[in-house]
Amino acid sequence: MSRIVATIAAGLVIGGLMLISWTCSQTANARLQVAAEALSRSADECLYDVRDRHQTWEASRNCAALSALASEYIAAGGFDKEPAKIRAIADQARLTAWMARATSLAGGKSVSIF
After folding, report:
1. Cα–Cα distance between 45 and 75 in angstroms, integer?
2. Total domains in the fold of the chain
3. Containing H/E element for 18?
4. Degrees (nearest 5) of the Cα angle 84, 93, 37?
5. Residues of the domain holding 62
């Protein structure tokens, strides 16, 4: 009888630990998702600033915010082992930021890689 109780107790402990682990993972993914989306929004606004609003990279508050937002994303575990969906958001933000930087450096001239 005591062996059955011990087995049940061990099962409950293991189940509890698995639930805690899953919850922590979901919380970490949620933090990554929020950080990736903030980075993406700022990169988009940065591109709008330099391309459409004719600001320089240095004058744009959105461009200036990218460094801190990227650091937050990395601190949350980004560019390491995040889910593919979150990684895609961050990768797109990085590409958009580079487009904004290149557009700003071009000084109003057309920029093309092809």
Report:
1. 22
2. 1
3. helix 2-51
4. 70
5. 31-106
